[in-house]
Amino acid sequence: MLRYSADWRSIAYLATAAAIAVVHWNFEALALPVPTFEVLGVAIQPVLYVVALFLGVATAVISHNHNHLSMWKSKPANLVTSWVISIFYGHPAIGWVPTHNMVHHKYNNKPGDSSRCPKVFKRNHLFALLIYPTLTSMAQTAEIKAYIAGLKTKNRKQYWSAISEYVVFFGFMAVVFVLDWRKALFFFLIPQQVALFVIQVFNYVQHIEADENSQWNHSRNFVSPVLNALLFNNGYHTVHHMTPGLHWTKTPEAHAKVAHQIHPALLQRSWWGYMIWTFLLRPLVPGAGAPKITEVGGQEQATA
To answer: What is the pLDDT of residue 120?
Structure first.
């Protein structure tokens, strides 16, 4: 049984991602009367492919949520769900535990957080954003290896559960690449890499130019109703750090209770609007410096 009936939506997303992958893989045999284009001899339906890329990103969010509060009351069901998630997210879900739960939520973009941003650069700009996912993933790989090695001596049951996630994920990827490496590339590997990249971008923009030392202004929130409806309320980041195990259906209500405490600069209505302004337009506008959240006269304010 699911802990929350709303997670049938999460299951529906995963099922749809699987269905699209199966349809795309067998597109020639199905002979569907819809337009396609070919790359390396592989027929790709553009609308389905865009949906598949979106579902990859959504699965990354589902993986994050499932990591904080598992969907099922049954441990075996949760493990099987993690296996399925890994195929569309691009990494075994166990990787969230050492990098996100144990490090990011502990340090929250302070020194010691392997996902701290920015990296290499001191300022926020497009290039800093683009290199962040790769550098963060490299830093987190060592944490994951150390965590799993520790499980081997501390908790053998959890260790073998973690190993099973890697066996299923890499086993599945090996099989599909042997069957048809071109289809495996376009229908699995590329969507996985997009999902892994975008989820790191989400973390970057949720913390860059915020005040990690503030009680309320340590995270940026994207409060678009559309974005939050599509991505399981992932935009409400302040309350997520306050209560990581809070189910995603409850975060809008929790956010509403504390929104007045959060500086308006960290309450963005549009994710795309923020991205276009911050990384494309702002560098071209004289005097449009990055807002820095500071505490002035007992009230935290944004200054240019």
So the answer is: 93
